[in-house]
Amino acid sequence: AYLSIFLLSSSISKLLESEHNIKADIVAGYGIGEFSAIFSVGGMNFPDSLYLLKKYIVSYDELLEDGSFFVASVKGVGTRKLSSFCKSISDEKSSVSISAYHSELEHIVSGDMLLMKQVESLGDVDDIGVEYGLHSTKMSPVVDILNTYSNKVDFKDLNIPLIRNIDGKIISKNDIVKKSLFDQISSPIRWNSVLDGFVDCEMILIIGPNKALEYSIKKRFCDISVFSISSNEDIHIVKNFIDEKTDNAN
Fold first, then answer.
1. What was the pLDDT predicted at 166?
2. CA 41 to CA 157: how far, in whole Å?
């Protein structure tokens, strides 16, 4: 599904810009979405993006072959308490860690399947599947493999800034973009920090099939217009909204 998500998201982004003159001032991509975000703002060309993403898919599949990992959402537990809990049940043989920070009480954790039962004891825990990505040091072998292919990929400076997953910082230089893309594979997603970068926006467009992101962003930004786009109908809704807002301003 990673390739399908990339193709859909990238196509919509280019369609918005080329046919409807809707251009972003800043972009971000959640997890695997950072590939399409970087492509959409000129950081990689289309063949290179597909090439690198395919290598990622193959190497990640190989890592998952023994079925020894899990990924779960945890709600209702504070960041500090959850971090301490993860450390307390981890050792050299098996471990679990926070792989995404959504808010003070909403996180994603990942780790060795042997520890899943202990994580479930926390309460509001849902297994969301390894398709989400581990976003921890357990992904280091995948990053090592990607680095062997990275010299074939021509990373360029971005024509629109990107808010990176690992810390919410705004970047545009090609070497930093490349490092950040690889780092987010083996590091936690700081989505709460990423969203901080959108506080001054008037509109946020969520490109591609992700209703969960739409819900979390609307929850965070009650005073910002938020639209999720995954079809032509969605594009027309956004275009009509912009046209109406422009007419009112005039």
1. 95
2. 9
Tell if the pTM clears 0.85, that is, is over it: yes
Three-point CA angle 46, 204, 240, nearest 5°: 95
CB atoms within 10 A of CB 169: 16
> Pairing between strand 170-171 and 124-127?
unpaired
Q: Are 32 and 60 in contact (CB under 8 A)?
A: no
Of the chain, the end-to-end C-alpha distance in Å amounts to: 44
Q: For residues 48, 49, 52 and 55, what is the CA-based torsion angle, rounded to 10 degrees?
A: -120
- 231 — alpha (psi -120 to 50), left (phi > 0) or beta? beta
pLDDT digits (tens, 9 = 90+) for 161-187: 999 999 999 999 999 999 999 999 999
Q: Which residues lie across from 54 on neighbouring strands?
A: none
Burial category of 243 from C-beta neighbours within 10 Å (exposed 0-12, middle 13-18, buried 19 and up):
exposed
In this prediction, residue 209 has a pLDDT band, given cuts at 50, 70 and 90, of confident
